[in-house]
Design brief:
The structure is a single chain. This protein is α/β, with parallel strands linked by helices. It has 27 helices and 33 strands. Strands 1-2-3-4-5-6-7-8 form an eight-stranded parallel β-barrel, surrounded by five helices. Strand 27 and strand 28 form a beta hairpin. Helix 19 crosses helix 23. The N and C termini lie far apart (62 Å).
C-alpha cells in the first residue's frame, strides 16, 4: 500500500467567474484544493468578500502565493515596508477565510550575483538583518492570527539571498517562531539542491508547504525529475498538507493537468516501492521484515505509516553513506571517555585542543573516543541538549569532530529521552507549533504514576508558561530543565531516528543511548525498561546495520544487574554494548573490604553474549559510582561502607526515589582513584598509583570492551573546590584540565606520571594478546578471597590468567604459575605483593 496525497492547483488555471465555479473545474481536473494568488497594492484584501463567500460555500483555499512587484528583502526601505504591510494584509485575509498559510520569497528579479553587476549593493550581513526583521514581523503577526508565513527559496538567477532549503532553515531557526516556515518549490530545488531527497529530509521540521513543477518548469511528469523518489521522501518526512501545482503547462489545461494528477497519484499509491536508482541494496526487504513487527508492537494502529517513514530514512542514509562500515571491537579497542572541552588551551578551539593533546600524549594508547554531549546545552553539563544537530560553538564545529574522527573512532552521546526546556522542540510545542504536536507529555490525572521509578528526588512534573499566558505541567524525569520526549507520538520517534542516523553521517562509529530505559511511558507501570523501549532499541540497531554495518549501539541503564543485561535482547538484535554498571562499585568494594568474594561471585556469572554483542566495562565516568547495580549483590553494611569512604574524602552521596516514596543511594560522587584509598593513604602518590593500576588490571582483564575516564587515565584528584563552587555534586570528577599544564604534569607529577604510564602499559599488552578478545571467554576462579582471578581464553593457545591482589598483604597463589606478559617475569607459584597483579601465560601451553 502507498499513501494518499492532496493536490492543489493555482486559481489562474481554472475557468469560472466565481470561486465556486473555479472549484468545480478544479475538482473535474482531479484536485483537492485551490491555491490563491496574492496580488499587491491591496488588491488581494479587496477580494475578501468574494473569498469569504467561497469559504462559506465550502471551497478549500488553504494557501496563497504572493504576486507582487516588490518583496520583504527589497533594497529600497519604502518598498520593503510596503511589502511587509501587504504580506500582513494577506495573512489577515487567510486567517479570515480559514486558510493556513501565505508565502513569499526574500525577493524576485531584484538582483542576482550570477548576473552583472555581480556585486550586491548590500552586504550578506545586512541582507540577513533585513530578512530577520521583515519575516520576524510577519511571523509575529501570523502567530497572533493562528496562521503561517513561509519563505520560498528561489534559484540563484531570481534571488541572491535565500536559494536553498538549508539557507531557509538557518533563517527559520534565527526567527525562532513556529508561525514561520519554508515553502519548498521543486523547480528551484532542482537547480539549487545537490540531492532533493536529502534537502527535504534535512529541512523536514520547517517545511510548511510544497509547490510542484518539473525540471523545465512545466507540470509534473513533463520533465526529468524523479517524482517517485520525491513523493516517497515527502511522505517519509510526514508532510500531509497540499502539494500545489505552480508551473507552466505543456498543453491545454484540460489535457495536461488530469494526466499529471493521475501520474502523481499512481506513483504515490505505489511509493512503498523505492525508485530503482535509489535502491542501494537488496536487503531493504529484510529490513522491512525486521522493523515492521517491532513497529506493530509500538504503534499497533499506525505501524504501516511509521514503517514507510523509517524505511525511507534508512534507505536515504544508506544511499548517502554507501560503503560506510564501522570496525567491530577487538582486544585493541579501548574507549577514552571525555568531554569535548575536558582539556583546554586559551584562545584555542576546545575540540582542536583535545585532538592535539591526544595525538601528542596519548597516541594509540586508546583507539576510540567517547565524546560526552558536544551539543548546545543549558544544564547538567551537556545532558540538557538544546539542539541535537549542532555542535556547541564553545567547543568547535562539525569540522573539528571530523578531524578527531580521522585519528580515532568516535562515539557520540545521544540523549534521546529528554531535551532542554530551551530546545526549539519544546519551545515550539509550548507555542502550539503543529510540527511538535504530541512531542511532550502533559500531566494527565488519569495517568497512574504511582509506580514510576526515577533517579531523582525532584518533582516528576514541572510547570511551564505558554506564550498565550497559560501554563502546562509536563513530565520531567530528570528535572525542570530536562523535558522528556514523548515517543508515543510516531513523528517524535522518526525525528529521533533521523538524529541518530545523522550522527553516523557525521562520523560516529558508535552511539551511546543515554538514560534510554526511561524512554517509554505507560500508565500504571514503572515507566522503566518497558517492552516498547526495547523494541525501539531493536529498531535502531536494525536500521544502523542497514545503513552502516558494525556501528555500535551502547545502552546506558544504571539499574540492578539483572535488569541491565536485558538490553542485549537475544544477543543479536538489541544493544551491541551494555554498560557493566556493577563492576565499578564491586571493584571498589573489593579494595575497601579487602575481599573479592562478592566481586568474584558476580563475575562468575558474566560470560560470552554473542559474536556481535559484549560488555562495556568501566570504573569511572562523568557520573558518580552507581550503587543500584549492587542491589541483591552487596549487603546494606557493604554499601554503607562505600558511602562512608566517599564521605570521608569530602565527596557526596546522591539519592533516588523508590516507588514507595522512600529514598535509596543512587550514586557516590567522588574521584574513583581517591575512593580506592583511605584519606591517610592519599598522602602517598606511590600507593594511590599502585591501587589505581591494580583496579585497572581487573578492568582490562575483564570480558568485554574497556572504557577509561580521562581523569583516571591522567591520574587526577577529586575537584572539591569545583564541586563546592558549583553546588553540583558530579563536578567533583569533571574538572577541565589545562593542556600545557597537563603535559608538564604527565612528566613530573608522581601520581599522574605513574598512573598514566602504568595504564598505558596495560593497554599495550592487552592489545597484543588475543585472549582479551571482547567476544571471547572468561572463567573466574577462587584461589584466595584477597585476590581476583580470571582465566581468559581457557584451554586455547591464547590462554592468559589474570590475578590481582586487592589487599596490603602479600598473597601467594599456589595453583597459578607462568610468565607474566606485563613484566616478562616467570612465577611458580604466583606471589603477588600488596596491590600487585600479573597476567600469566601458563608455561604448559
Amino acid at each position: 500500500m502507498g499513501h494518499t496525497i492532496k493536490l492543489a492547483v493555482q486559481e489562474q488555471y481554472l475557468r469560472g467567474d466565481t470561486m465556486a465555479q473555479k472549484w468545480e473545474h478544479a475538482q473535474a481536473l482531479g484536485f483537492d484544493a485551490i491555491e490563491l494568488r496574492g496580488a499587491g497594492e491591496g488588491r488581494f484584501a479587496a477580494r475578501l468578500p468574494e473569498l469569504r463567500a467561497a469559504a462559506s460555500a465550502g471551497v478549500p483555499m488553504p494557501t496563497v502565493c504572493v504576486e507582487m512587484l516588490h518583496f520583504v528583502g527589497d533594497f529600497d526601505p519604502d518598498r520593503r515596508l510596503d511589502a511587509i504591510k501587504q504580506m500582513k494584509s494577506q495573512l489577515s485575509v487567510m486567517a479570515d477565510i480559514g486558510g493556513r498559510l501565505a508565502m513569499s520569497p526574500a525577493s524576485y528579479g531584484m538582483f542576482s550575483t550570477r548576473l552583472p553587476p555581480f556585486i550586491s549593493p548590500r552586504s550578506v550581513e545586512d541582507d540577513r538583518a533585513v530578512l530577520l526583521d521583515g519575516f520576524g514581523q510577519l511571523a509575529e503577526h501570523a502567530q497572533r492570527l493562528g496562521v503561517t508565513i513561509a519563505i520560498e527559496p528561489l534559484n540563484r538567477y531570481e534571488n541572491h539571498m535565500i536559494n536553498t532549503l538549508g539557507q531557509a532553515v538557518d533563517l527559520c531557526e534565527q526567527v525562532g517562531l513556529p508561525s514561520f516556515g519554508i515553502a519548498a518549490d521543486t523547480y528551484h530545488m532542482n537547480i539549487e539542491e545537490a540531492d532533493l531527497v536529502k534537502a527535504l529530509n534535512d529541512a523536514a521540521r520547517w517545511i510548511r508547504h510544497i509547490q510542484l513543477s518539473d525540471s523545465n518548469r512545466l507540470e509534473p511528469g513533463a520533465g526529468h525529475l524523479d517524482w517517485s523518489a520525491l513523493l516517497y521522501a515527502i511522505d517519509a518526512i510526514g508532510y500531509r498538507q497540499e502539494l500545489a501545482f505552480e508551473c507552466r503547462l505543456s498543453g491545454e489545461v484540460d489535457g495536461v493537468l488530469p494526466v499529471s494528477v493521475q501520474h502523481l497519484r499512481q506513483l504515490a499509491s505505489s511509493s512503498l516501492m523505492l525508485p530503482t536508482h535509489r535502491r542501494i541494496s537488496s536487503d531493504i526487504g529484510d529490513l522491512r521484515a525486521t522493523v515492521a513487527p517491532l513497529l506493530a508492537s509500538i504503534y499497533p494502529d499506525r505501524s504501516d505509516e511509521v514503517c514507510r517513514r523509517i524505511l525511507a530514512l534508512a534507505d536515504d542514509y544508506a544511499y548517502r553513506l554507501r560503503g560506510r562500515r564501522s570496525r567491530r571491537p577487538t582486544q585493541s579497542t579501548t574507549y577514552l571517555i571525555t568531554y569535548g572541552d575536558a582539556i583546554r588551551r586559551p584562545s584555542e578551539t576546545a575540540l582542536h585542543t583535545l585532538g592535539e593533546v591526544l595525538k601528542r600524549h596519548v597516541g594509540d594508547v586508546v583507539s576510540d573516543v567517547h565524546l560526552l554531549p558536544m551539543f548546545p546545552w543549558t544544564s547538567d553539563d551537556g545532558f540538557a541538549v538544546v539542539d541535537y544537530r549542532k555542535v556547541n560553538p564553545a567547543l568547535g564545529t562539525w569540522d573539528d569532530i571530523a578531524a578527531l574522527a580521522a585519528d580515532y573512532a568516535v562515539m557520540f552521546d545521544f540523549v534521546a529521552n529528554h531535551v532542554s526546556s530551551s530546545s526549539p522542540w519544546f519551545v515550539g510545542w509550548l507555542a502550539g507549533d503543529p510540527a511538535y504536536d504530541g512531542f511532550f507529555l502533559e500531566h494527565d490525572p488519569e495517568f497512574d504514576v504511582s509506580r514510576v521509578i526515577r533517579p531523582r528526588t525532584t518533582p516528576l512534573f514541572h510547570e511551564y508558561g505558554r506564550p498565550d499566558g497559560t501554563s502546562v505541567s509536563v513530565w520531567t524525569t530528570f528535572g525542570h530543565d530536562q523535558v522528556d520526549v514523548n515517543v508515543a507520538t510516531p513523528r517524535a520517534l522518526v525525528e529521533l531516528t533521523d538524529v541518530l542516523l545523522g550522527y553516523v553521517e557525521h562520523g560516529a562509529s558508535a552511539v551511546r543511548l543515554d538514560a534510554i530505559g526511561f524512554l517509554w511511558k505507560e500508565s500504571g507501570t514503572t515507566c522503566l525498561h518497558l517492552p516498547q523501549t526495547h523494541a525501539i532499541i531493536k529498531l535502531w540497531r536494525a536500521v544502523l546495520e542497514h545503513v552502516a554495518p558494525e556501528t555500535q549501539l551502547l545502552t546506558e541503564t544504571n539499574v540492578p544487574h539483572a535488569e541491565n543485561v536485558a538490553y542485549f535482547g537475544d544477543g543479536q538484535d538489541e544493544a551491541n554494548l551494555v554498560y557493566q554498571f556493577a563492576l565499578p562499585p564491586l571493584v571498589l568494594h573489593a579494595f575497601v573490604s579487602g575481599r573479592t568474594t562478592e566481586l568474584s561471585a558476580w563475575a562468575s556469572g558474566i560470560g560470552t553474549v554473542s559474536p556481535t554483542a559484549t560488555w562495556f566495562n568501566f570504573l569511572a565516568s562523568h557520573d558518580g559510582i552507581g550503587l543500584r547495580a549492587t542491589e541483591g549483590i552487596l549487603s546494606d553494611d557493604d554499601r554503607q561502607a562505600l558511602v562512608d569512604r566517599t564521605l570521608a574524602h569530602g565527596g557526596k552521596v546522591s539519592m533516588a526515589v523508590r516507588p514507595d516514596g522512600n529514598q535509596s543511594v543512587y550514586e557516590l560522587n567522588i574521584n574513583y582513584l581517591d575512593a580506592l584509598a583511605t584519606p591517610e593513604e592519599l598522602r602517598s602518590d606511590t600507593l594511590v598509583a599502585q591501587k589505581a593500576l591494580a583496579a585497572h588490571s581487573i578492568l582490562l582483564a575483564f570480558l568485554g570492551v574497556p572504557a577509561i575516564y580521562y581523569h583516571s587515565l591522567f591520574g587526577s584528584r577529586s575537584d572539591l573546590a569545583g564541586m563546592a563552587a558549583s553546588g553540583i555534586s558530579r563536578r567533583i570528577n569533571r574538572q577541565p584540565l589545562d593542556a600545557d599544564q597537563l603535559g608538564v604534569e604527565l612528566q613530573h607529577d608522581p601520581r599522574r606520571r605513574a598512573v598514566f604510564a602504568g595504564i598505558s602499559r596495560l593497554l599495550e599488552v592487552r592489545g597484543q594478546h588475543a585472549a582479551f578478545a571482547p567476544y571471547g571467554s572468561q572463567q573466574v576462579e577462587n584461589h584466595d578471597h584477597r585476590a581476583f582471578v580470571a582465566r581468559r581464553a581457557s584451554g586455547t593457545p591464547d590462554e592468559v590468567v589474570c590475578a590481582t591482589n586487592v589487599t596490603s598483604d602479600t598473597v601467594t597463589l599456589p595453583g597459578l604459575s607462568g610468565i607474566d606478559v606485563i613484566r616478562g617475569e616467570e612465577f611458580s607459584p604466583l606471589v603477588l605483593p600488596p596491590y600487585g597483579f600479573a597476567w600469566l601465560r601458563p608455561t604448559h601451553l
